[in-house]
């Protein structure tokens, strides 16, 4: 592994370093913990391969006790990490999802999509789309997948997409893609939980105007994982750039947007919510702001009172029914 600074090609602080010999050294989000029974929450988890051809995996969670006659909502969760770090096995995600499953009494499939730069965008979106196709296959009586935790414990008419940061961005794009696809006949998405969404744009808005250091950092992150000729106004990162799909095409009827006061991405989240409310989309939008906290604070401090409030609000959203 490269250690000489002269061999360094890219320093994508705080996520990773890329060396001239092609070595990628992740400096964040590389830690992993095993699945199993969490005694604090009484939540079970296990790792599964969901797309053997590409080795896309997931960590699936359920409460340890589910009555035989009860079917639970399913949240398909997409983790953050700027599209280039983290996984469902990351300790912070594992702890947070145990807490969410316990609070909401749901099943969660936490998707391990492949990461940039080894797998440049749009790979993460394609892997995430394939994960939804995998979930939908459990509705088929024949030739479907047979993950018992989905077959036995999930109400497939109560499916939600949930994600934080890059994962919230993924959830948005999946909900747009579903509407005009064959998948819309198999899978009805009830709602989307979008936490600290990773949306961006070339022209600064809100606090980005004065916070130039963080603006430049986020610019750099996006241009690294998606070297597009449209830069930070690529429709993948800017949902309101030229060529972006209309929000009316979102295939769900409820969306919860969660932002944090000290997050550089908060103004994009608020802007998304405002646009949603004014759009032709026929659903109901809600917004929650956490005061005094930064980006994905609940991942780093899941035991805090504000994190628990976020889990409660998200749990209530996931339990509103069809």
From TrEMBL:
GO terms for molecular function: hydrolase activity. Transmembrane segments: none annotated. Pfam families: Abhydrolase_3. It comes from the Eukaryota. Gene3D superfamilies: alpha/beta hydrolase. Residues 76-298 form the Alpha/beta hydrolase fold-3 domain. SUPFAM superfamilies: alpha/beta-Hydrolases. Belongs to the 'GDXG' lipolytic enzyme family. This is Carboxylesterase 2. It comes from Hibiscus syriacus (Rose of Sharon).
């Amino acid at each position: 592994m490269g250690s000489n600074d002269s061999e360094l090609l890219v320093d994508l602080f705080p996520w990773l370093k890329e060396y001239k010999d092609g070595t990628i050294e992740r400096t964040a989000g590389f830690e992993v913990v095993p699945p199993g029974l969490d005694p604090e929450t009484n939540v079970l988890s296990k790792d599964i391969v969901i797309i053997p051809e590409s080795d896309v995996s997931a960590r699936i969670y359920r409460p340890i006790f589910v009555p035989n006659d009860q079917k639970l909502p399913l949240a398909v969760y997409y983790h953050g990490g700027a599209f280039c770090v983290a996984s469902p096995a990351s300790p912070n995600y594992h702890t947070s999802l145990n807490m969410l499953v316990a609070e909401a009494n749901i099943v969660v499939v936490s998707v391990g999509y492949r990461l940039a730069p080894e797998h440049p965008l749009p790979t993460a979106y394609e892997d995430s789309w394939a994960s939804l196709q995998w979930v939908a296959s459990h509705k088929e009586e024949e030739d479907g997948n047979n993950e018992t935790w989905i077959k036995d414990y999930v109400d497939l008419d109560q499916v939600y997409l949930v994600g934080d940061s890059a994962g919230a961005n993924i959830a948005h794009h999946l909900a747009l893609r579903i509407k005009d696809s064959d998948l819309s006949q198999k899978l009805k998405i009830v709602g989307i939980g979008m936490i600290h969404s990773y949306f961006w744009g070339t022209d600064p808005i809100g606090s980005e105007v004065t916070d130039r250091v963080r603006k430049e950092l986020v610019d750099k992150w996006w241009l690294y994982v998606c070297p597009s000729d449209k830069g930070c106004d690529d429709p993948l990162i800017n949902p309101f750039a030229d060529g972006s799909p209309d929000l009316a095409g979102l295939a769900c009827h409820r969306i919860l947007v969660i932002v944090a006061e000290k997050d550089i991405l908060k103004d994009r989240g608020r802007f998304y919510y405002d646009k949603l409310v004014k759009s032709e989309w026929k659903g109901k939008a809600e917004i929650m702001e956490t005061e005094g906290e930064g980006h994905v604070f609940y991942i780093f401090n899941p035991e805090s009172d504000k994190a628990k409030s976020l889990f409660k609000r998200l749990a209530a959203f996931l339990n509103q029914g069809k």
